[in-house]
Amino acid sequence: MTDIPIRPATPDDIATILRFVRELAAFEREPDAVEATEAMLGEALFGPHPAAEAVIAEEAGEPVGFALFFHNFSTWKGRRGLYLEDLYVTPAARGKGVGGALLRHLAAIAVERNCARFEWAVLDWNADAIAVYRRMGAVGLEEWTVQRVEGEALRRMAGG
Length: 160
Prior knowledge:
This protein is of the alpha+beta class.
């Protein structure tokens, strides 16, 4: 695959995006963790106050991958950044450059929007992805760790 068409997602893609999210969760060894619904994704991507954006990669007019991203902000840089939440390529399309094309597409969006950074997280056991990221110039931030509060712990932290 040499020229990989990538287009902005539309509301017609919501079912496909949710299928890809579920397939990604299974790949990441969390097949039962997805709580999102089509309605939730529709609101998040296309509602009155979108929380994120998505792009779809296609082969022969059929979706073979997606990337979902949003803006964050760096106080140190004084500019927003682009954060990649999910990137997924179907098993049949892997090894054809789809993932790299999606990353390059998002990097171009980040440059076009004057973002200071393009960031994402990767599971430490996903050596194939990490190798691709390193070849593309990404640097691992070994000194940083992700912190998360959710569910009951989040409600306790909020004082409830």
